[in-house]
Amino acid sequence: MITTEHKKIYKAKVETIKQVSVSSYFIEINCGMPIEVKAGQFISIYCDGLTLRRPFSVYSNNNGKIGILFKERGKGTKYIKSLKTGDFIDIMGPVGNCFNIQNKKSLLIGAGIGVAPISFLKTKLEEKNIANMFIAGFLNKNEIPNEINVDKYCTDDGSFGEKGSVINYIEEIIKEYKPQIIYACGPLVVLKNAAQIGEKYNIEVQVAMEKVMACGIGVCRGCVIDIIKDGKTVNATVCKDGPVFNGSEVVW
Ligand SMILES: Cc1cc2nc3c(=O)[nH]c(=O)nc-3n(C[C@H](O)[C@H](O)[C@H](O)COP(=O)(O)OP(=O)(O)OC[C@H]3O[C@@H](n4cnc5c(N)ncnc54)[C@H](O)[C@@H]3O)c2cc1C
Ligand code: FES
After folding, report:
1. Cis peptide preceding 243, ω within 30 of 0
2. What is the 3 CA–ligand 2 centroid distance (Å)?
3. Which ligand is nearest to the CA of 222?
4. CA–CA distance, 5 with 138 (Å, rounded to integer)
5. Rounded Cα gap, residues 40 and 119, in angstroms
6. Mean pLDDT of 177-202
7. 167-177 vs 188-200: helix axis angle to the nearest 10?
8. Pairing mode, if any, of strands 152-155 and 162-163?
9. Which residues have C-beta atoms less than 6 Å from ligand 1?
10. Alpha-carbon 148 to chain mean position
């Protein structure tokens, strides 16, 4: 491991790589030593030949064996998909802030590949015996990764679980399950709706945001969003100040 003020870089060995849905993959990489990772944090992977590292939320951590769930999008994820057991890759992290776990009955919302950090959060809540309900939404049943531990599913086409977006079910669950806090990750529209519904019911909502990143360590300012601090609109970097923000502070 190379550690500087900002960076923790590991040469990590690929332990497992497998397809887990029609469009997503699970890779587990061994950093060779125990590493503490908090739910919501991410790692940045150097992809052969590409200048910019690619960020991925941590999905699991077993004593320094870090798992991520990823979808193939472009050159970087194509490279990761091509890796084989025994290959070595260069990862930086864990970086970013994390969900601020509270001992409160929790509603977990994940949409698409946003289920990755939420699954990791669920593991952490269960280690602390915190009651939780995890609702996850996908386009259709073929997009649901194997082995994820979800309580309620929705699919846009109704091919598995409830029909429609998770957004349609948040209020119903709030009324029935009565969560005291909500944690969410997924497309912006899901996060915005979760934040607004949380506000309506006076429930704290923590959202894990995504932005295309360059440096990944708070230097280039390429990933800024607007947030409200002390009544003023200010910039915050998703990579260093985030990726987790309070839904009520984000300028949607
Ligand atoms: C904090 C954070 C956590 C993330 N966690 C995960 C994860 O757990 N699993 C996962 O599959 N992906 C995750 N992503 C997204 C992932 O970083 C991108 O899919 C990846 O960088 C794409 O690289 P690429 O070279 O394959 O595609 P590129 O060639 O870089 O891009 C291909 C297409 O995808 C779009 N794209 C690239 N990055 C993003 C992004 N961040 N958000 C939206 N669109 C993007 C590009 O605009 C382009 O249209 C995360 C991103 C962030 C910022
Ligand atoms: S990616 Fe450079 S500041 Fe966030």
Report:
1. yes
2. 19
3. 2
4. 39
5. 10
6. 98
7. 30
8. parallel
9. 42, 54-57, 68-71, 73-77, 113, 116, 210-213, 243
10. 14
Q: Give per-residue pLDDT as tens, 22-53.
A: 999 999 999 999 999 999 999 999 999 899 99
pTM over 0.90, yes/no: yes
What pLDDT is attached to residue 4?
40
The four Cα atoms 18, 113, 177, 202 give a dihedral, to 10 degrees, of: 150
The pLDDT assigned to 1 comes to: 32
pLDDT band at 3 (very low <50, low <70, confident <90, very high): very low
* Distance from the Cα of residue 49 to its chain's centroid: 25
Alpha carbon of 173 to ligand 1 centroid (Å): 30
